[in-house]
Amino acid sequence: MLERLLRYADKQLHFGELVTGVRDHRRWSHVPTADVVTAVLDMFFARLGSLNALEKLNHLPAWKKLPARSVSADTIGRVVDVLDDGSLRASQKMLYTSMKRNKQLVAPSHGLIALALDGHESHCTYNQRCQGCLERDIDGKIQYYHRNVTAQLIFDNFSFLVDMEEQRLEKVS
Ligand SMILES: [Zn+2]
After folding, report:
1. For residue 134, how far is its CA from the centre of ligand 1 (angstroms)?
2. Ligand 1 midpoint to CA 125 (Å)
3. Ligand 1 center from residue 52 Cα (angstroms)
4. Contacts by 119-122, CB closer than 8 A, 24 or more apart
5. What is the pLDDT of residue 78?
């Protein structure tokens, strides 16, 4: 079923081209970026909740027949962390253009398409911090957290993710 879905997506939306257009910032790579991006898409298409759930499928004979299906959860995590924003946005734009051209994005009956901006907090902790952490004082104790903002176009049949940016701490000099 997943293989048929991917074939359909490739035919209708040129998924293969979208995936191979994504780059990353690794100095050397053993696993192609396209394999990692395909594995992540598989995770979403199969509605799996985590990279570890995806990795558990690697031993299934039917799964092994599909291309790019033996990427470990650790490798996916490392590569996704260094994906190139510009190439991701270019692929996203190609996907939007294909979906518009194929009339797969249906405007609501009033004809207006909303742009929804939404903030998400991915995690918070009192124990660890990285260079990108935001900080807040909770009852005298510093809490570290990450927050991002997403922009989506709201169609009648689909919400199309336009972009996402991490909120950064503004340095005042
Ligand atoms: Zn952090």
Report:
1. 7
2. 9
3. 22
4. 119/147, 119/148, 119/149, 119/167, 120/147, 120/148, 120/149, 120/150, 121/145, 121/146, 121/147, 122/146, 122/147, 122/148
5. 93
109-161 pLDDT per residue, tens: 999 999 999 999 988 999 999 888 999 999 999 999 999 999 999 999 999 99
Question: What residue spans define the domains of the chain?
Answer: 2-101, 114-166
The C-alpha atoms of residue 33 and residue 48 are separated, in whole angstroms, by 20
pLDDT of residue 5: 74
Please give the model's pTM, rounded to 2 decimal places: 0.76
Q: What is the pLDDT of residues 37-49, one digit of tens each?
A: 988 888 887 888 8
Centre of ligand 1 to C-alpha 129, Å, is 5
Q: Cα of 146 to ligand 1 centre, how many Å?
A: 6
| Mean pLDDT of the 69-95 span | 91
Ligand 1 geometric centre to CA of 124 (Å) = 8
Distance 165 CA to ligand 1 centre (A): 15
- For residue 74, how far is its CA from the centre of ligand 1 (angstroms)? 19
Q: Indicate the angle between helix axes 2-13 and 33-45, nearest 10 degrees.
A: 120
